[in-house]
Specification:
The complex is a heterodimer of chains A (478) and B (132). With 478 residues, chain A is of the alpha+beta class. Helix content of chain A is 36%, strand content 27%. In chain A, a hairpin with a 4-residue loop joins strand 7 (363-367) and strand 8 (372-376). In chain A, helix 8 (192-201) runs antiparallel to helix 10 (240-269). The longest helix of chain A is centred in the middle third of the chain and has 30 residues, at 240-269. Chain B has one helix spanning 50-53; strands spanning 4-13, 17-23, 28-37, 44-48, 58-62, 67-76, 82-91, 102-108, 116-125. In chain B, a hairpin with a 6-residue loop joins strand 3 and strand 4.
Chain lengths: 478, 132
């Protein structure tokens, strides 16, 4: 058996050059007359795929984009991007949230800030504790009567959200677009001689003759119709001799075009170029929002909430521009983005600070006919938080499917009628996420709180959790 | 890494027609190399950028014997997926469109599998003495 195997291997090695030659011959097969000129060109540069192959790719793409992107991203807490929410609201005004009511959003630039102004008409519903307080014997009748008193404007929310997009803050490329565009152009520059060769191979003589070479007798057929461009026509719509000339031109043009593609792709794959994406992603973020909810006494108390968040992502495009003396250039990018700096970028570290406040107005209501009264004091809660998150491992080899760690500390203050309540507490959370595959990840978390009752375990100050996340849909392997 | 290539050709464009090319504004670098050849002069090669293709429409007259070749590139410069639209068409002297216009949406992102898209466009007038 061993001798037979050895003989087969030797035979394969001996015949390999011939097989490779046959493969080359196969690659040189002229494109079929049924292909359009455009398809033939793509065939020559090795890009044209059959319908079956396209269907397969479409199917895989659909599968890959369904659901959350990766298991580990789902627990990423340090990255928050304000812009897509604005974008989504722009595209789908009023239907960006799954809710009962009507939401309107308006996006505007206010100087260096991008702003979103919102108005939500929530469907008014009776305040639940109020309904629960009504004696059971008359509850149904009272509820029906009170609901009849509610108006559309009895529960309205006004929102203003702001995101700073200047002075090195924000991921809006607008402030760097021209510079980055020039820089990219410089990085992927192709020699003039190659461009000249590309244009020379695209034979002027053949192009000038293409229209005259169309078969007049076939122009009544839809696939050879007069209104179609040359690239939309199958080669069979041309005189046979001309179709051969066209094939040759397309084949010759594909050679320098492929070389151009190779040079540009090499530039696009350069580590410094790849770092551009991360540099932009690392821009500092400062955003905030204020929300006022006006409610009728039957619906609930008026409420004012605000949120502010500051995020630092390490070395950014802004830092690079500063290091480059105020102007981004390709040479500065390449010399500044050393291997060590690129490695640090791949950690994707983020520091963040946030403040969330909620002020609720006092709520007093007496309904004598229903024998019920509500008296709730004014309350205020302020939550101050800070955190840090980062990935471990190589971005190039593993992408976002890497272990990551997140640390979060916070303090919550609560007041009732300006008096401190016992609920004030400090909390800290440490979580470690370890992806096992593209579909599953393990999460280990440790939580500490200064008031142990908030941990759900009255005997200890620290609680630990261990979890497993699993995605049913497999990501596209990268 | 997949880069999409397209070839677009108008041939037999009537004399006095105009070629139009425009790219929508977006988070990508727009560059183009152009070769313009007329019946009386050899090819002149020049470069175009966003100022000529995005801020305004690039136009070129097409006469008998004219061959205009454009190699257009959209290189994505933003990490989030961006879509850009390339619109090319040829209008005749009376303003009507000559054959089908070319409109295509291209999507890609910096650092992604689709960092660049390319379109090779040709607008050729009739052959001198060919009667087209």
């Amino acid at each position: 058996v061993r001798n037979t195997t050895l003989a087969a291997v030797l035979l394969a090695l001996l015949t390999f050059p011939a097989a490779a030659g046959a493969q080359e011959d196969e690659e040189r097969t002229p494109c079929a007359a049924t292909l359009t000129v455009g398809e033939c060109f793509r065939y020559e540069i090795g890009e044209f795929a059959t319908d079956e192959e396209v269907e397969k790719v479409d199917e895989e793409t659909t599968k890959a984009t369904t659901g959350a992107q990766t298991a580990s991203e789902a627990v990423s807490t340090a990255v928050r991007d304000f812009l897509p929410r604005v974008g989504a609201a722009l595209i789908l005004p009023g239907v960006d949230e799954d809710r009962t009511g009507l939401a309107l959003r308006l996006n505007r630039y206010l100087g260096p800030l991008s702003a979103q102004i919102g108005l939500d008409l929530n469907k008014p519903a009776l305040y639940a504790p109020l309904v629960d307080s009504i004696p059971e014997s008359i509850r149904a009748a009272s509820k029906e009567r009170l609901e009849g008193d509610l108006e559309d404007q009895d529960d309205v929310t006004f929102t203003l959200a702001l995101n700073l997009e200047a002075w090195g803050f924000g991921r809006n490329l607008g402030q760097y677009r021209t510079e980055v565009s020039d820089l990219v152009t410089e990085l992927v520059e192709v020699p003039d001689s190659l461009t000249q060769r590309l244009f020379a191979e695209l034979s002027t003589t053949v192009l000038l003759r293409a229209d005259a070479a169309r078969l007049r007798e076939r122009q009544s057929e839809p696939e050879c119709a007069r209104n179609l461009r040359v690239d939309e026509l199958p080669l069979s719509c041309f005189r046979a001799t001309f179709a051969d000339s066209l094939r040759e031109v397309l084949r010759n043009t594909a050679i320098p075009y492929q070389e151009i593609a190779r040079i540009r792709t090499r530039g696009l794959r350069a580590p410094a170029f790849a770092a551009l994406a991360q540099l932009l992603n690392n821009q500092r973020q400062l955003n905030g929002s204020i929300k006022y909810r006006h409610r009728d006494d039957l619906v609930g108390a008026n409420e004012l909430t605000f949120n502010g968040r500051l995020e630092f992502g390490g070395y950014s495009l802004h830092s690079l521009r500063k290091d480059c003396g105020g102007t981004l250039t390709a040479s500065c990018l390449v010399s500044t983005m050393t291997e060590a700096r690129i490695r640090r970028l791949s950690e994707g570290g983020r520091w963040w600070l946030s403040a969330d406040g909620t002020w609720r107005d006092e709520h007093e209501l007496a309904l004598t006919t229903d024998s019920v009264a509500i008296q709730e004091p004014e309350t205020f809660e302020l939550k101050l938080q800070g955190g840090y998150g980062r990935y471990f491992g190589s971005l190039r080899e593993e992408g976002t499917r890497r272990p990551r760690i997140d640390v979060e500390v916070g303090y919550v203050l609560q007041r009732e009628d300006d008096v401190r309540v016992r609920n004030d507490r400090a909390t800290a959370t440490l979580s470690y996420t370890h992806p096992f595959s593209s579909t599953s990840a393990g999460v280990f978390g440790v939580r500490w709180a200064s008031e142990p009752e908030f941990l759900g375990d009255v005997d200890r100050n620290i609680s630990a959790t261990l979890g497993l996340t699993y995605k049913l849909v497999k990501d596209d392997e990268k | 890494m997949s880069v999409e290539h397209r070839l677009v050709i108008w041939s037999g464009v009537p004399s006095g027609s105009t070629f139009h090319l425009r790219v929508t504004r977006g988070d990508y670098a727009v560059t183009a190399s152009v070769s313009m050849q007329t019946a009386t002069s050899g090819p002149t090669i020049f470069e175009l950028g966003p100022a000529e293709l995005v801020d305004q429409e690039f136009t070129a007259p097409i006469e008998t014997g004219t061959v205009l070749k454009v190699e257009l590139r959209l290189t994505y410069i933003f990490p989030k997926e961006t879509t850009g639209t390339v619109n090319a068409r040829v209008t005749q002297a009376d303003g009507s469109e000559f054959q089908n216009a070319f409109t295509c949406d291209y999507t890609g992102a910096l650092g992604s599998d689709s960092p660049e898209d390319r379109v090779l466009i040709v607008a050729a007038g009739g052959e001198p003495g060919g009667g087209a």
